[in-house]
Amino acid sequence: MSDSSYDEFSYFHENMDEWNIESTVPIVRRFFVAVDGLRQLSGLRWGDGEPELTLLHGGAQNAHTYDTVALALSPHSLLALDLPGHGHSDPSIYPASAIASHALDVARALEQLITPPRPLVGMSLGGLTALLVAHDRPDLVSALVLIDITPGVNADKARHITDFVNGPTSFDDFDALLERTKQHNPTRSESSLRRGIMHNALQRADGSWVWRHQQHGKSELQAPAVGDLWEKLSELSMPVTLIRAMGPGSVVDDDDEAEFLRRQPSATIVHVADSGHSVQGDQPLVLAALLEHHALGVI
């Protein structure tokens, strides 16, 4: 398999067929926005109306992780951003996990892309980034939705994910990359994993494959300090929702949930059954319905 004929907009009917979504594919455009000199963030604009919410993906993912969710939310218009160093976005000078730097970039992008404030949704790394954006720029964020992430998630809780992300930096062929991905996602269909790889990997001139987030190499700079994220969560004044995956692979435990409610007593906690960490992949229709209610205010 080669990525020479890759068309990122040609797979949406596969998503719709797999999840029995009966609608037409909305207008989807890739955009680029400057956030620091010539450095740009990229993303997908779904629909031709004013964006109603923005989605941030997890570490080692990209904006296409939300394709099925966005299709299910049509005709709502929305944005799905590629974090720095992910997808089609330029890398920053800091490591790919530098959420303080990411939050600054995302805020700069949102200033140009939305009529604020609007709901901000973030999963995993994107969730912690979204939390910082909401804290530092509440003028941009009307509601915050975190997907399977809290400030209490540590290296031990996320070990199964980081072990996968920090695995081989290249693969001899597509099949080797697919096999490793299948081992990490045993409940997903092979077609969905193939689709995800095409969105998230590149074939190099020698025929080998590399993840998009690994193509830039690793930064040796120390990431900017983020401070106490639990304290920042407690200082938020907009509505906050935690969507917690309840299946194998989730990184949020009961202690995290209890502390979340202690810090944000008015927060809404929603449990999603039969879902691992990436709720958008395991239960996209459930997530779409939850976002309609908790982010978009659709009853």
Layout of secondary structure:
Layout: H1 12-18, E1 28-36, E2 39-46, E3 54-56, H2 67-73, E4 78-81, H3 99-113, E5 118-123, H4 125-136, E6 141-147, H5 159-165, H6 174-184, H7 190-200, E7 201-203, E8 209-211, H8 229-234, E9 240-245, H9 254-263, E10 268-272, H10 279-282, H11 284-294
Parallel strand pairs: 3-4, 3-5, 5-6, 6-9, 9-10
Antiparallel strand pairs: 1-2, 2-4, 7-8
Summarize the structure.
This protein has one domain: Rossmann fold.
Derived from helix and strand composition plus strand pairing, the structural class reads: alpha/beta
Q: Indicate the CATH topology.
A: Rossmann fold
**CATH superfamily grouping:** Alpha/Beta hydrolase fold, catalytic domain
How many structural domains in the coordinates? Answer: 1
Beta-strand fraction estimate: 15-25%
Helicity level, as a percent range?
Answer: 25-40%
Please give the largest β-sheet.
8 strands, mixed
Count of distinct strands: 10
Estimate the mean pLDDT confidence. 94
Number of DSSP helical runs: 11
- What would you call the shape? globular
Could you tell me how far the N terminus lies from the C terminus, measured between alpha carbons in angstroms?
45 Å
Radius of gyration, whole Å: 18 Å
CATH top level assignment: Alpha Beta
What does this structure look like?
There is one protein chain. The protein is α/β, with parallel strands linked by helices and 299 residues long. It has one domain (25-154, 213-294): 3-Layer(aba) Sandwich (Rossmann fold), CATH 3.40.50.1820. The chain has 11 helices and 10 strands. The strands form 2 sheets. It has an 8-stranded mixed beta sheet, sandwiched between helices. The chain has a two-stranded antiparallel ribbon with strand order 7-8. The relative contact order is 0.15. The mean pLDDT is 94.
